[in-house]
Prior knowledge:
It is a single chain. The chain is α/β, with parallel strands linked by helices. The chain has one domain: 3-Layer(aba) Sandwich (Rossmann fold), CATH 3.40.50.720. It is built from 7 helices and 5 strands, in the order ααβαβαβαβαβα. The chain has a 5-stranded parallel beta sheet with strand order 3-2-1-4-5, with helices on both faces. α4 links the parallel β2 and β3.
Amino acid sequence: MHGEGLSFDELALVEPLAIGAHGVRRANVQPGDYVLVIGAGPIGLGTMEFARIAGAKVIALDVNESRLAFCREHLNVHAAVNAMDSNVADQLKEITEGDMPTAVIDATGNLKAINNAIHYLAHGGNYVLIGLQKNPFLLVTPSFIKEKQP
């Protein structure tokens, strides 16, 4: 039988952790990369930890300040940004030393978050959706094929 020797609590973590590991692998996270993880729920937290293990500088983005505090205090993320702030893109540019995150991983499935996230991605970066969303999302071509700024 699969899962022998694991408690029910441990087994309950298998799926969210597997999804997070899959997202980090799909984003091709490399040591030193800035990785933005959108959503600090169970899947997002696992994603952040796997990105950190891969050597990334992890940036947490969520609307819930207590979740962001948890990320700062317990996950040792590089930075945490509240998605409700009016200047998220500016904050990300400052955190990433003038560029943007080389990987953006959405763990929310929230359509607004998915539509906004393309603006947070560095030129040539990887955008991975691991949150579930059944509705179509918006992809504005100029945002997607933007030129790298000098």
